């Protein structure tokens, strides 16, 4: 598969790394880039050898938003009839293996929304997050008004969405948007370390964990806890559960087979 707006490689034959690659436009997300991103994610998800994926950008920008130049002349009829955003941004939601966003520099507008669509965010100390769409006369359109309040609470989400200001990595970590902050020059090393740790576990268990945590954002607490309980029960049907627990009991490393 060859791509124009992203680069793709694997690390240790286990981690699929996707780098957004429109550096001159600060990785502004156009439709072609989003289609390529969806194709790359789906290919990694279908590859048995891959246990985790990373989406990253450049030092200066994870992504500075949807491509404003491309959007500027769209009419309501254009965006409604073509199902703008839904058509090519939603693929990531169907990815079942864990996806980590490794964010350095700007993650604004659609860039912040893309990072929030990943399972967790590791931020470099130069990361800046924001939903500046209000300055363009619009609002976030790829889930920002829904995922941001779930991550940082109503007050900060309103502040960011209504003022369009940016928050730095420290504020983002304090607010719960990012899971950890690392020095810029350690971003990929640290993210890869987390990805390889995930790859060392049973793929069935990591997929179930992702599915169950995501359930916390849909439906009631009681439904979510019941969903988790049934997945937890189901994992007792896997070879990996027998292996993981036997390894602990017998004080040896587990060798998972994803069965
Ligand atoms: C298109 C963009 C862009 C974007 C930057 N560029 N962001 N092009 N779409 N979102 C381009 C600039 O036009 C410029 O091109 C080049 O990238 C470098 O940007 P500069 O502005 O010169 O860099 P700098 O001064 O460092 O400022 C960085 C910045 C600023 C603060 C990130 O670029 C900025 O405010 N960008 C827009 C951020 C934004 O509003 N994002 C939300 C978009 S709306 P040239 O050719 O001049 O060198 C959105 C809607 C989401 O995302 C809805 C659903 C997805």
**Neighbour order of strands in the largest sheet:** 1-2-3-5-7-10
- Helix-strand sequence: EEHEEHHHEEHEEHHEHEHHHH
Which residues form runs of ≥5 with pLDDT under 50? none
In this entry the ligands are: hexanoyl-coenzyme A
Based on CA atoms alone, the radius of gyration comes out at 19 Å
Mean pLDDT: 96
Large-scale geometry: globular
Question: Structural class of the secondary structure composition?
Answer: alpha/beta
Please provide the count of β strands.
10
For the record, give the distance between the C-alpha atoms at the N and C termini, rounded to a whole number.
Answer: 29 Å
Strand fraction? 15-25%
Largest sheet geometry: 6 strands, mixed
Question: How much helical structure, as a percent, in the residues?
Answer: 40-55%
* Number of helices, counting only DSSP H or I runs of 4 residues or more: 12
